[in-house]
Specification:
mainly alpha, 23 helices, 5 strands, 61% helix
Length: 504
């Protein structure tokens, strides 16, 4: 029996075992799970999902990872570092089994595992009551990233690594093998795989600063782990080049990033006006305040875990680079808050009535996304369900284009590029901003606003069709440009898009 387990047994108040048996281990966790599932089950509106699946399908067909882009006209023959290839293949396999519904289910499974390990790491230290509350806050703080993108692998691995390191599962060959396999999968799925060795490095740094603490693995074990993780990061088709791409990903967010990146909502400032208008920010802020307050008090009383404090502080810095990265703090702050609370006042347990009230409130919350009230209240273009959001993309246009025998390059807004690629068309651009020459991308995107640039773009890329999505900021200028260009004729319209075919 460990010291922590003994302390937990000693500090359990009378009736706690009955409360846990009847409520805490059933009613409250079930209500928490249902509230989280209600947020996870959502239709897909993310435009990047289309090209992730399409590229994964192409990799399976060619049985090779692309190094030169052959997907979009504006980036043909340019170098393409596809660090997401393994995740793309996984998405493609899901799509082949059940279409975009299966893709959504895969995302739910991956995020479910992520939050499960966050919960397990928290339960190591505190009561079910506290852990349910913390994990629920973490889930809402992460909810903006409940989309089938490669970054979900980074979120999952951060949560798993945190749990394994906390439990000191680094000492045996079996442990090292598990870490190596996880790190290799991470390195082939998302460019932020470098966080893995860094997390182990935080533990090594803490052992050096504060030697002799029995809660941390031995320095030699940590050195072996770091060596294994570093070698595993090279187990990709790109080798050391993967680290250079990771640097590119790290610079996508922040004030010094490209203007194209700065225009993305997901990369807006963490404390900016846009971020503050969504509920995920406020749950992130609650976790941040709780982390700071509990950590300062625990630090003053010399009861804080230095390794995990350093780790979470570093990921706090990452979370401040853009709204998308708030997730990294949420997933690691929750278990550290649970630990800090235990070290300050072992095992905080909600009274029976408060647990029931909390569970009922969580069930009430679960009804909000299911009914659509949650999304309407915050003007979020989502709804409860699976598959592609109705009205976001045209279900009939691909069949129409096939019937008329259309072939050639299609000028599309970036958000329709992946949709076009998925359906066998050749789009002008998609959402992979890093593959383009910046000047070329500026020219292509600005063509709709300038007649001379438009004519140059049409002739340079021999564009045979134009797809216009409704509701975007550039819809009117593009329609105006097409109405003045006699080379294009409107041949298709529905609630999501219109298509203009070049007739000469």
């Amino acid at each position: 029996m460990t010291e922590v387990t003994q302390q937990r047994a000693v500090n359990l108040p009378p009736g706690e075992s009955e409360t846990r048996g009847r409520l805490s281990t059933l009613f409250l966790p079930t209500a928490t799970a249902l509230a989280i599932v209600a947020l996870l089950v959502r239709v897909i509106v993310d435009s990047d999902t289309w090209f992730q699946v399409a590229i994964g399908r192409d990799i399976l067909r060619r049985v090779e990872v692309p190094r030169i882009d052959h997907y979009v006209a504006a980036a043909f023959n340019r170098p393409y570092h596809d660090s997401h290839w393994l995740f793309q293949v996984l998405l493609s396999l899901a799509d082949s089994c059940g279409g975009m519904t299966a893709v959504g289910l895969l995302m739910i499974i991956l995020w479910g595992c992520t939050l499960f390990f966050c919960y397990r790491a928290s339960c190591r230290w505190n009561s079910t009551s506290i852990c349910c509350l913390l994990v629920f806050l973490a889930a809402v703080a992460c909810s903006d990233r409940f989309i089938p993108r490669p970054e979900v692998v980074s979120y999952l691995m951060v949560s798993v690594f945190y749990y394994l390191l906390q439990e000191r599962r680094v000492t045996s060959v079996r442990h090292l093998t598990i870490f190596a396999l996880l790190q290799a999968a991470w390195a082939n799925s998302h460019g932020l795989f470098v966080i893995g060795p860094f997390m182990a490095g935080c533990y090594l740094l803490s052992v050096v600063i504060s030697p002799g603490r029995t809660e941390y693995p031995e320095p030699l074990a940590l050195l072996k782990l770091i060596a294994v993780l570093l070698v595993a990061t090279l187990a990709t088709p790109f080798g050391i080049e993967g680290w250079r791409y990771a640097v590119l990903l790290a610079t996508e967010a922040g004030p010094n990033s490209s203007s194209h990146f700065q225009g993305l909502i997901e990369l807006t400032p963490t404390f900016g006006k846009v971020a503050r208008s969504f509920p995920d920010f406020w749950c992130y802020l609650l976790l941040l305040v709780a982390f700071v307050v509990t950590s300062v008090i625990a630090l003053l009383k010399r009861k804080v875990s230095l390794a995990r404090l350093v780790l979470v502080l570093a990921l706090l810095g990452v979370s401040l680079t853009g709204r998308r990265n708030m997730t990294f703090l949420a997933l690691t702050a929750a278990p550290l808050i649970a630990e800090n609370l235990f070290r300050l006042r072992p095992i905080l347990v909600f009274p029976r009535k408060l647990q029931v009230i909390s569970a009922l409130l969580l069930l009430g919350f679960a009804s909000l996304p299911v009914s659509g009230i949650y999304y309407k209240a915050f003007n979020i273009p989502l709804r409860f369900g699976l598959g592609i959001a109705r009205g976001a993309y045209s279900p009939s246009l691909p069949k129409f284009l096939s019937q008329i025998g259309f072939h050639g390059v299609v000028y599309t807004p970036p958000y329709l590029g992946g949709y076009s690629l998925y359906h066998g068309l050749t789009p002008m651009v998609d959402g992979r901003w890093e593959v383009y020459d910046p000047d070329v991308l500026d020219t292509v995107l600005n063509a709709r606003f300038d007649r001379k640039t438009w004519n140059l773009t049409i002739s340079s890329y021999d564009i045979r069709g134009v797809m216009v999505g409704y509701g975007e900021y550039d819809t009117d200028p593009l329609l105006q440009r097409l109405s003045e260009d006699q080379r294009f004729q409107n041949v298709y319209n529905d609630e999501a898009v219109s298509f203009w075919k070049r007739v000469y």
